[in-house]
């Protein structure tokens, strides 16, 4: 085997990233050709503004998938939190300092419960999080069936404020992704996510606290959903129990596109970040050239399959 | 004795239907290498799992460094200075050598973050201490099996170890690597570390161990200095009876019938590079060699689950070109695979379904399963192979390992009218079942079936085979028959040729796998 | 050395466990019905019971198929989307007379078979995880359907379609007859035929199945086809019940069909399960849903209860069979 082939094999993750990055550039160029408004500052600003919600839920999903699980409760959780935030802030706009931490704590708690249930009951994470999703969704609907509530102006601003032309939310997102990447790559706890996802039994034999790692990954996913919900509520100004319905499955797409494998143990947040950019830019481009959102669904499905095809065929 | 590193007293472990440990006492002194001997299924691995905190005993006490302990997890045992090298490698194939070695002790630098440079430096240091040259950036799944094993061993040198337990570390390494391992074990012994060493190779026990404890069927047979026992005595204690009683008598005259299987210059993937062998009608042919030498892959190529690159496989005198197990089964070829659980049994299904699995045709009438017929076949096979079960409807997962293996024999002997390939046919079964299995194999051969038997247990190869081929690194390196057939002769061939090739490979390094 | 030192004790404890395992769901269902009858006199009224069963029938058809897929260690998230797509397809004929009904059935089954074939091919031949493969299929079907209808489907259907939901033959609802027929036919395939045996072998241990001469890929693909066809037929019957076509016919059936199968003891790890037990799971699910309504609780509570029982049922079977 040649040295180059070895090198590529070793850096197959890098290659995944490269492919996605090249696709991104191609998309941008294509966008520029198809519409002269696509590559304007204004549009790029809009695009960046949209990143945070999908970015955060995908990041949460990345933690869980890397650890070898899956979180299908993300969407319901985001929906429930927007309802909580909008209604709470309508009632007491002055208590925003209380509402936001409460939302984050609740989100982390729900995630931790997901993790605990998979660990204690040893039930497939798909079942646990699907069940949890149904419970949260039902509970939210019992409280509020229709979108409602409102948010104070100051809160709405966090979604729209820009610093030097760049939305704050995008900066927050980048900072969080950098921290997450550092944590995963350079701390012992972060690495243990990879160990648990790579081979759970081996991780146990190597003396790693596997159960705690599992719970931690789900808790982080919950926390990410909480952050997503805060920005989503700020942007829309209402609490909508159904707003997260599609988000669960959307959170999986960037993860898969970014080369993280569903079996766990391989991948990373950089891939997810690129995946989020790709999905967001593609949707934006399709809107620009007036492709109906219906076809965007078809395209999203195809992207998942193509991504899985590319990443898995090079695995051997 | 309070000076022991670890002292186990009256340890019991129960599973439904089996009792892997029955009131076992075991103690390791600081600065000794203590060999743990026993047949497969004698309870060695369970004892190791108890010491390493993987399994909790049902009763009994563990005293470690003078204090009673009750490990809740491998983590607790490790934190206290117990390092176990398990038989199955506990490595992460997608991750680097350095990361695997320092799995729970990654060096931290600035801001408490793991330092990549320090990680590789420390890993390289440990590998150098061990005496091997493995690139720390390589991913585990790029390494040959022997190097993977050395990485696993390197992990033991990371922390402050007081008790080191090695479960068959030499199964996949040979020659220089074994020497390096022993050197390091002696060094650790001199530093006062207590070492538990498990190996099937008695000559290694004599070379390195100070004392030996022998287990049989989950019970303690005894502990004594190695020098106080002869090889014969060890075997007799381990097995519980004399060797002559274990193996059925060999056939009187060497088989001179036609070849049922003839393989010439077979190449199949990286692990099968040049293999020629033959099996005559009614003959038991052994295939010996290290794990990873390509034995299993040869069997897979013959059976049709591995693509053949070049070479000839003749079956019953005719070129044999089938691509799938289905065709092989139709020709009267059976393959009892190495791992019962992974690719042999249908654990959730009843015994009867497991028996008839390769031959559904025989019990199918107009597309429907004839249950009466299935039951009849299963009942007959259960009797023939004396499987201990109340009914063929019992789920096979509820049987003991030995009985599961007998079910697999009853499955394959039914359809293997010409040739039966056995890969590690007695792995994990007790001695009673072993003796029965040996008789079954001999009976099959006597009825005219050719048997190709792959095994890592040399006594079994020597005791049962009419002829033996020795494999090393994808090549058949020798054939032994008649009076020359002995464990030493086989080891000699296997190890020497590995070393020869290693020497040759150093000139133009070529990654395997 | 035999593991059967005390055969009496062991067989007894096994039999109690297995009775509970086998009949636990029946006992649970009967208990639920008793509670329902006590809580609300309406429950046992024929009109209500027929209504419950009518709701149960299309779900039952989907569950029969879902069972096949779960048995081979899979999962089909595209069933609900397929049901709606089949419903839209039924309107594509713009037929106002009953002559079109056979055509509609043939087209629906053909479309379903193709969908199943693609799912199965992705899973078996391309090694895509069932979750991702059927998820992608779900979204693609959804997009295609919306694109075709432009978001506003027409509801031109032959009048006879309603017969599928409310019609009776000899006093028995026709959808129940169809379900019984489907369940029996596929039950025989699964539990009596050679193919069924191969399905259990592949689900229990795909590698061992291959080594025993079975072609696992073919078996897996077949299971996905069966699942999609069942879902497609279920979609037509559901359409008959709903009467009007929407882009969301069958929404939630992917979750419900998995809940019912898991409740019926079909193991997500594959190789263990029974079509008829899975249908009992359907009965439990619809009785619970009905009970929630009869007791005057908000309908959303069904979602909460569903979530709890799926986790609870999975945990129950896990500990039972560990």
Automatic annotation (TrEMBL), chain A:
Keyword annotations from UniProtKB, A to Z: Cell membrane, Membrane, Transmembrane, Transmembrane helix
GO cellular component assignments: plasma membrane
Bilayer topology: Multi-pass membrane protein
Main location: membrane
Superkingdom of the source species: Bacteria
Localization annotation: Cell membrane
Molecular functions (GO terms): transmembrane transporter activity
One Pfam family named in its UniProt record: BPD_transp_2
Transmembrane segments: 12-35, 47-65, 72-89, 95-119, 126-143, 163-184, 213-231, 243-262, 269-288, 294-312
InterPro entries hit by this protein: ABC_transp_permease (IPR001851)
Name under which the protein is recorded: ATPase
TrEMBL record, chain B:
Listed Pfam families: ABC_tran
Membrane topology value: Peripheral membrane protein
InterPro entries: AAA+_ATPase (IPR003593), ABC_carbohydrate_import_ATPase (IPR050107), ABC_transporter-like_ATP-bd (IPR003439), ABC_transporter-like_CS (IPR017871), P-loop_NTPase (IPR027417)
Superkingdom assignment: Bacteria
Lineage start: Bacteria, Pseudomonadati, Pseudomonadota, Alphaproteobacteria, Hyphomicrobiales
Family to which the UniProt record says this protein belongs: Belongs to the ABC transporter superfamily.
Localisation: Cell membrane
PROSITE patterns given in the database record: ABC_TRANSPORTER_1 (PS00211), ABC_TRANSPORTER_2 (PS50893)
Gene Ontology MF terms in the entry: ATP binding; ATP hydrolysis activity
Protein's recorded name: ABC transporter
GO CC annotations on file: plasma membrane
Domain ABC transporter: start-end pairs: 6-242, 255-498
Keywords on record: ATP-binding, Cell membrane, Membrane, Nucleotide-binding, Repeat, Sugar transport, Translocase, Transport
Gene source species: Mesorhizobium sanjuanii
TrEMBL record, chain C:
GO cellular component, one term: plasma membrane
Molecular functions per Gene Ontology: transmembrane transporter activity
Top-level taxon of the source organism: Bacteria
CDD domains: TM_PBP1_transp_AraH_like
Subcellular location: Cell membrane
TM segment ranges: 23-44, 50-72, 79-97, 103-124, 131-148, 168-190, 219-242, 275-297
Keywords, alphabetical: Cell inner membrane, Cell membrane, Membrane, Transmembrane, Transmembrane helix, Transport
Regions annotated as coiled coil: none
Bilayer disposition of the protein: Multi-pass membrane protein
Principal location class: membrane
PANTHER family named in the record: ABC TRANSPORTER PERMEASE PROTEIN YPHD-RELATED-RELATED, AUTOINDUCER 2 IMPORT SYSTEM PERMEASE PROTEIN LSRD
UniProt subunit comment: The complex is composed of two ATP-binding proteins (LsrA), two transmembrane proteins (LsrC and LsrD) and a solute-binding protein (LsrB).
Function summary: Part of the ABC transporter complex LsrABCD involved in autoinducer 2 (AI-2) import. Probably responsible for the translocation of the substrate across the membrane.
Protein name (database record): Autoinducer 2 import system permease protein LsrD
Native organism: Mesorhizobium sanjuanii
